[in-house]
Design a protein that fits this description.
By secondary structure, this protein is mostly beta strands. The protein has one domain: Hypothetical upf0131 protein ytfp. It is about 10% helix and about 40% strand. It is built from 2 helices and 6 strands. Strand 4 and strand 5 form a beta hairpin. The longest helix has 10 residues. It is globular and about 35 Å long. The two termini are about 25 Å apart.
Length: about 150
């Protein structure tokens, strides 16, 4: 199975070490009809009209379970999921494939859209949203500890 990653799990991201060498299938990929949000120290994607850039990896069920835990995915349809896991069409050059992607499952109105669609090509607030991080919102509501993600 494949997973499309667009933030801290990308090759130069802080969590890239989770992927074994050689598991990257496509380095430069994108998904359409999603917008990328700046959720603080990590991004989120939500259905929209943009293009999100990322990478695609081949993974096994053990790594999928690890990614589910990192992304706060408990089960399909669970309203407490931080991210939902969905299947999307990923475009990689002239090829396409089906892959899982983690879609932000929280109110997206308080976060800045990253118009470039690229987590590593962002330059601060890019619209009129409040720009508060997800974890700051959760901490102020008493819903998460200082450990964050």
């Amino acid at each position: 199975m494949k997973v499309f990653v667009y933030g801290t799990l990308r090759a130069t991201g802080s969590r890239s070490r989770l992927f074994p060498d050689g598991s990257q299938v496509f380095e430069e990929c994108f998904i359409d009809e999603f917008d990328m949000l700046d959720v603080g120290s990590f991004p989120g994607v939500v259905p929209g009209c943009g293009r999100v850039r990322g990478e695609t990896y081949e993974i096994d069920s053990d790594l999928l379970a690890t990614l589910d835990a990192i992304e706060g995915f408990r089960s399909t349809g669970d309203p407490s999921n931080l991210y939902n896991r969905e299947t999307v069409t990923v475009h990689c050059g002239d090829a396409t494939c089906q892959a899982y992607v983690y879609v932000f499952n929280q109110d997206s109105n308080n976060y800045d859209v990253i118009h470039s669609g690229d987590w590593f090509d962002r330059d601060g607030p890019s619209n009129d949203r409040a720009g508060t991080s997800y974890w700051e919102n959760q901490k102020s509501n008493g819903e998460v500890s200082e450990a964050g993600e």
